[in-house]
């Protein structure tokens, strides 16, 4: 079993990742693959929190650009993240992984309310905690929610799982000559306007010294590799950690 470089992590998943190869919705095969990855990391003794976006169902910013009230659209996006959280919880528990969904918007029939101390206690007991409904406020992205929750629970790193293998100086899909960065400082990300996270999320990580690792989740085993301290993807922020002993 690999040795972990971290004790507590926050994994950020985009909603689009749960759609698999589809344009929208939830694909059980994709969720199953990601659930297997989380199970493998939990078996290493790592405490895992997860934030999932809702873009595979509804994206608030897209609704606002179509003429919808931004706050109303963002609340709809938050509800989409709850659907994804419940789907991921089902996949994890089907694999024997104890899981709790904590929602920033109270909905006691399907999820626990977000309370920081409760979230930390769940993590300490070995449960995977899925944070749903973003921050509970409009005008904030799920990236910002991930940065906020990571700071609140004292996560050592945010692992941002994407469809590409790191951060590039331009879109690698449109530009085959795009250059990938191995590491960046928070200020470099902000000054270059790189689309890693929105500026609020990056600033929050910078203020709280929370590194972010951007990597490709589609390659099986990558989460374990990142958690084990392997050089993978692009690292934003503080120097790399030393692998924990024992």
Structure report:
By secondary structure, this protein is of the alpha/beta class. Helices cover 37% and strands 18% of the residues.
Short description:
The chain is 37% helix and 18% strand. The protein contains nine helices and eleven strands. The mean pLDDT is 90.
Observed structural traits:
single chain; 246 residues; alpha/beta; Carbamate kinase; nine-stranded mixed β-sheet; two-stranded antiparallel sheet; 9 helices; 37% helix; globular
- Give helix % range: 25-40%
Average pLDDT metric: 90
| Structural class by sheet pairing and helices | alpha/beta
Question: Which descriptor suits the 3D outline?
Answer: globular
Strand and helix order:
EHHEHHEEHEHEEEEHHEHE
Fraction of residues in β-strands: 15-25%
Radius of gyration, rounded?
A: 17 Å
Give the SSE map.
Elements: E1 8-13, H1 15-18, H2 28-42, E2 47-52, H3 60-65, H4 70-93, E3 99-103, E4 112-113, H5 116-124, E5 128-132, H6 142-152, E6 157-162, E7 167-168, E8 180-181, E9 183-184, H7 186-192, H8 199-207, E10 212-216, H9 222-227, E11 234-236
Parallel strand pairs: 1-2, 1-6, 2-5, 3-4, 3-5, 6-10, 9-11
Antiparallel strand pairs: 7-8, 10-11
């Amino acid at each position: 079993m690999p040795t972990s470089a971290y004790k507590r992590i926050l994994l950020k998943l985009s909603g689009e990742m749960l759609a698999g190869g589809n344009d929208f919705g939830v694909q059980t095969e994709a969720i199953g693959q990601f659930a297997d990855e989380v199970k493998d990391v939990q078996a290493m003794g790592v405490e895992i929190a997860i934030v999932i976006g809702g873009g595979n169902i509804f994206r608030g910013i897209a609704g606002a650009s179509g003429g919808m009230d931004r706050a109303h659209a963002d609340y709809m996006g938050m509800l989409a993240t709850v659907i994804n959280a419940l789907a991921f919880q089902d996949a994890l528990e089907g694999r024997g992984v104890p899981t709790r969904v904590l929602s920033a918007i109270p909905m006691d029939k399907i999820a626990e309310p977000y309370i920081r101390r409760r979230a930390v206690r769940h993590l300490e007991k070995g449960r995977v905690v899925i944070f749903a409904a973003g921050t509970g406020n409009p005008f904030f992205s799920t990236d910002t929610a991930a940065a906020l929750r990571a700071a609140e629970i004292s996560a050592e790193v945010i692992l941002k799982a994407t469809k590409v293998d790191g951060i590039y100086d331009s879109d690698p899909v449109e530009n085959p000559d795009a250059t990938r960065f191995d590491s960046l400082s928070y200020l470099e990300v902000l000054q270059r306007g790189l689309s890693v996270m929105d500026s609020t999320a990056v600033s929050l990580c910078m203020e709280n010294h929370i590194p972010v690792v951007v990597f490709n989740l589609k390659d099986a085993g990558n989460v374990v590799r990142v958690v084990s301290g392997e050089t993978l993807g692009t690292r934003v922020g503080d120097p790399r950690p030393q692998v924990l002993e024992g």
